Amino acid sequence: MTAADPAPRRGRGRPGYDQAAVLRTAVELFNRKGYDATSIGDLAKELGVTKPAIYHHVTSKEDLLRLALDDALDELTAVVGGAVEDAGSAGAYERLRGVVRRSVEVLVAHQPAVTLLLRVRGNTPVEVEALERRRWLDDRLAALVRAAVAEGALRNDIPAELVSRLLFGMVNSLAEWYRAEGTYDAAAVADALTQLAFDGLARR
């Protein structure tokens, strides 16, 4: 393609199958069959379109994976990064509680994509990048835990890195059992998880 050639268009296509619809179906298939076991042909069959129709929206199966993992990570990255950087708005303890609560809301809003994120093992460059972003989140949350300990708000006998992993572990467990149509809405679950976590971490 020369500089004069127009860039290929994506995101539009057959009515009813824009990029968002293709991505939703791809994530559902990746979760059901596994990423490695799912082909573009499988996705086309699920949607009832041809493979070229899929390539109108994305360049490859790995491109779909990248979009899905970005969907899982982008908002959470903004929540954690904002809490760490906005030190003047509130104490570290309150910001930490806010991160945990918002993390529940983000997971519920992006549950299929988060479920996929929790299953990646670093088998592709896209997965490696996603795992590096998860480690960044762990590190920033641990820094917030240390700041809350320094304030005297949290107990200091548990390593901050362990607390960070346990907090995210509690939130991530929702991907396995939470259902939007179930007994508890996202707000109720966020309240309960935050209370359970921080009542146990409070300094006495």
Automatic annotation (TrEMBL):
Pfam families recorded: TetR_C_24 (PF17932), TetR_N (PF00440)
UniProt-listed SUPFAM superfamilies: Homeodomain-like, Tetracyclin repressor-like, C-terminal domain
Lineage top rank: taxon: Bacteria
DNA-binding region(s), chain positions: 39-58
This protein's record includes keyword Transcription regulation: yes
Keywords assigned by UniProt, alphabetized: DNA-binding, Transcription, Transcription regulation
Domain named HTH tetR-type: residues: 16-76
Signal peptide interval: none
Membrane spanning residue stretches: none
This protein's record includes keyword Repeat: no
Name of the protein in its database record: TetR/AcrR family transcriptional regulator
